[in-house]
């Protein structure tokens, strides 16, 4: 092809003569490979890529160059902090004639983990953990943050206390005037009436953000998820039989928590993580609204946070 094609980015006049903070693309579909100890999987990710445009007289960046850089990454190459830093530097270099000094990348994907049942041997199921990953290279300074959403169950301590009071009152009405009680009588009453009032429980969500060091071999997704689930003690289950459901009921009864309790449990578990941010949400079964608690703001200015229905956090 010998015909010179027009390039409005170079030849058309610029409107406004102002620099722009970020210019690029959102929602690019690409495969990525996550490799961590005991886990290797290729996943579908949606990727955002942007650079700054500091020169007011430059009409537009070279977006196709950004796309080609992303597309040229081998799908089997493991995602890593160092790999992201190199890719960000290549993005900056590709826009040298635009005066670009900074770049950022955002990844959103679901991490699939196989989780065993609580009690039943050889029973397991798959669980999805939504992840948002953001990396920035600003004037040579690299910052990388990862954000994971973890589901769990929460049982309200207040409703549990109120339920216990009603059971206590019912027991006293049945046996308050009997001077002597046999264990069999009490057991029979409990079998029939111990659930005359129950505490309300609900599916709940923890959104946890930590900073990742540039020299880390991997992002530590699994280690972070395991630590948060251990702290909360009531992670959502996959495949269950009745014995597993009973064990889950016991975990909920032994781990009553307000939304404040959940946030503090996670905070204590992440004490050795850098710049940890926490948001917990209890999807109330008593109210038509949610209960929330925060510890350190999360990615408030990023367009990459597609968790929670695409609303930036």
TrEMBL record:
Site positions (May be catalytically important): 156
Origin: domain of life: Bacteria
InterPro entries named in the record: GTP_cyclohydrolase_FolE2, GTP_cyclohydrolase_FolE2/MptA
Pathway: Cofactor biosynthesis; 7,8-dihydroneopterin triphosphate biosynthesis; 7,8-dihydroneopterin triphosphate from GTP: step 1/1
Reaction(s) catalysed (UniProt annotation): GTP + H2O = 7,8-dihydroneopterin 3'-triphosphate + formate + H(+)
Enzyme's top EC category: hydrolase
Keywords recorded for this protein, A-Z: Hydrolase
Gene3D superfamilies: Urate Oxidase
A GO molecular-function annotation: GTP cyclohydrolase I activity
Tagged with keyword Manganese: no
EC number: 3.5.4.16
Tagged with keyword Aminoacyl-tRNA synthetase: no
Function: Converts GTP to 7,8-dihydroneopterin triphosphate.
Homology family: Belongs to the GTP cyclohydrolase IV family.
Name the UniProt record assigns to this protein: GTP cyclohydrolase FolE2
Gene, per the UniProt record: folE2
């Amino acid at each position: 092809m010998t015909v010179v094609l027009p390039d409005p980015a170079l030849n058309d006049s610029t409107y406004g003569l102002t620099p722009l903070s970020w210019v690029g693309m959102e929602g690019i579909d690409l495969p990525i490979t996550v490799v961590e100890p005991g886990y290797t999987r290729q996943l579908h990710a949606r990727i955002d890529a942007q650079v700054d445009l500091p020169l007011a007289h430059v009409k537009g960046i070279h977006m196709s160059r950004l796309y080609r850089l992303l597309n040229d990454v081998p799908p089997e190459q493991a995602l890593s902090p160092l790999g992201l830093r190199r890719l960000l530097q290549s993005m900056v270099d590709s826009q040298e004639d635009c005066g670009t000094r900074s770049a950022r990348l955002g990844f959103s994907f679901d991490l699939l983990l196989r989780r065993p049942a609580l009690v039943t041997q050889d029973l397991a199921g798959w669980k999805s953990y939504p992840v948002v990953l953001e990396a920035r290279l600003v004037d040579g300074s690299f910052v990388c943050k990862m954000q994971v959403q973890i589901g769990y169950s929460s049982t309200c301590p207040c409703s549990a206390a109120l339920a216990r009071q009603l059971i206590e009152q019912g027991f006293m009405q049945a046996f308050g005037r009997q001077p002597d009680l046999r264990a069999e009588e009490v057991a029979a009453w409990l079998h029939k009436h111990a659930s005359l009032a129950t505490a309300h429980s609900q599916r709940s969500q923890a959104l946890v953000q930590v900073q990742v060091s540039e020299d880390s071999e991997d992002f530590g997704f699994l280690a972070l998820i395991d630590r948060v689930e251990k702290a909360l003690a009531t992670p959502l289950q996959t495949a269950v039989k009745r014995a597993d459901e009973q064990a889950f009921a016991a975990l909920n009864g032994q781990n009553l928590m307000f939304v404040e309790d959940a946030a503090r449990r996670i905070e204590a578990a992440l004490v050795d993580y850098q710049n940890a941010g926490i948001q917990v949400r209890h999807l109330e079964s008593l109210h038509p609204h949610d209960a929330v608690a925060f510890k350190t703001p999360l990615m408030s200015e990023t367009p990459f946070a597609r968790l929670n229905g695409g609303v930036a956090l």
